Structures are given as C-alpha cells and as structure tokens.
C-alpha cells in the first residue's frame, strides 16, 4: 500500500507491505454447483484438463453478444502450469 502525505509543502510517501494472497479454486460444493449451470447449454462450455484422471485445470467459455468467445474463468493448478495447459 502506498500512503501519501503532505508535510509543509512536500509530498512524502510510505510503502506498507501487503500480505500475499493466493486464490484457491473449488474449495467447496457451492463453487462446483455454480459451474453446473454451464452443462448442456448451447452457448456455454467447460473444458477440463486431466492428468492421470486428476483435474489439473479448466476453462469456462461463453458465446458473447458479439458472437466471440468470452472466457468466464480459467484455472490451472500451480504444480502443472509449466506443461502448456491453458
């Protein structure tokens, strides 16, 4: 975080550390249920990347109003990001 302050006629700043954050995916059943709405829909699709029958990533696509694909979500497990998945 960058904090600015005006002291006399000078602008000074301080930089504060922000704790790192790593988003986790599909931690609970509610998130999995949210993706069920894409199944059997003509303008939506989910592609799942598997390695040894384990899900290592997925991409959610929708047909946008302008007929281009809209990427709603894309996720690749951190351990497999060097394999060209995604």
From TrEMBL:
CDD domains registered for this protein in UniProt: NAT_SF
User: What's a Gene Ontology MF term here?
Assistant: acyltransferase activity, transferring groups other than amino-acyl groups
Q: Which PROSITE patterns match?
A: GNAT
Question: Transferase: present as a keyword of the record?
Answer: yes
For this UniProt record, the keywords arranged alphabetically read as follows: Transferase
Which ranges of the sequence are coiled-coil?
none
Domain named N-acetyltransferase is located at 5-86
Database matches in InterPro entries: Acyl_CoA_acyltransferase, GNAT_dom
What name appears for this protein in its UniProt entry?
Answer: Streptothricin N-acetyltransferase SatA
């Amino acid at each position: 975080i960058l904090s600015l302050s005006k002291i006399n006629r000078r602008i000074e700043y301080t930089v504060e550390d922000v704790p790192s954050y790593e988003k986790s995916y599909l931690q609970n059943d509610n998130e999995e249920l949210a993706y069920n709405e894409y199944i059997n829909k003509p303008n939506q699709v989910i592609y799942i990347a598997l390695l040894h029958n384990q899900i290592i990533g997925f991409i959610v696509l929708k047909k946008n109003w302008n007929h281009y694909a809209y990427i709603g979500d894309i996720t690749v497990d951190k351990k497999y990001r060097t394999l060209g998945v995604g």
